[in-house]
Amino acid sequence: MKRFVFLIILLVACSIGFSQSKPITLDKSPMDVSYFPKDYPLLKMNGKSKDLPIARIIYSRPQKNGREIFGELIQYNEVWRLGANEATEIEFFRNVKIDGKTLAKGRYSLFCIPKENKWTLIFNKDNFGWGSFNYDAKKDALRVDCTIEKTQDITDALTIYFENTNNGANLIIMWDNVKALLPISLK
C-alpha cells in the first residue's frame, strides 16, 4: 500500500512539473530551407522526382528591423556566418562546378566575407558550428568571389534560394538592398 501511495504521489508531482513547463520562445531568426531544383519536396511527394535533389541550403533568416546591415551590423572584410545562429549549411548531392572549380558532393558550412563591391563565399568542411566564432580557414574546401548588385527594393529578412539556369542554377542571396549571385553548374 505504501508503494502504491508513493507511486501516485510521484506521478502527480511529475505531471504538475511537466504541465508547468514553459514553451520555447519563437526565434527572432527562423530557419528556412531552399532546394535545387526548386520545390523539390513537392516534386518528390507528387512522384515527379525519384532522384535526390542537386542541392539544399539550411539557414537562419535574420531581419533588418531598420538597422544598417552591410558595413555596420555585418562588417566588411570579416568572416560572416551568412545568416544567424548556427552556421548556414549547404549540401550538394552530386559534384558541381563553381567558378570553374569542382566542389565534391557533401555538406559544407557556408560563410561570406562581404566587401562593398563583391563577396567571397566560403565552403567549409567544418559542420555543426554556431556562427563564425570557430571558423577555421584550414577547413575551407572552396573560396569563390561572387558578384553583388544594389537593389531598389529592401529585403527585410535574409533570403537565400536557387534559380534554375540552362546548365545548373544561380545561388541567390538577398538582404537589405544587396543581391549576390553565384552560378553553379552541373558537372
Question: Care to describe what's here?
Answer:
The chain has 187 residues and is mainly beta. It has one domain. Helix content is 13%, strand content 45%. It has 2 helices and 9 strands. A 9-stranded antiparallel beta sheet has the order 1-2-3-6-7-8-9-4-5, with no helix packed on it. Strand 6 (106-114) and strand 7 (118-124) form a beta hairpin. It is globular. The N and C termini lie far apart (73 Å).
What's the gist of this structure?
This protein is mostly beta strands. The chain has helices spanning 2-19, 40-45; strands at residues 31-36, 55-60, 88-92, 96-98, 101-103, 106-114, 118-124, 140-165, 168-186.
Helix vs. strand class: mainly beta
Q: What is the number of E strands?
A: 9
Largest sheet: 9 strands, antiparallel
Q: Indicate the percent of residues in helices.
A: 10-25%
Residue ranges: pLDDT <50 for 5 or more in a row? none
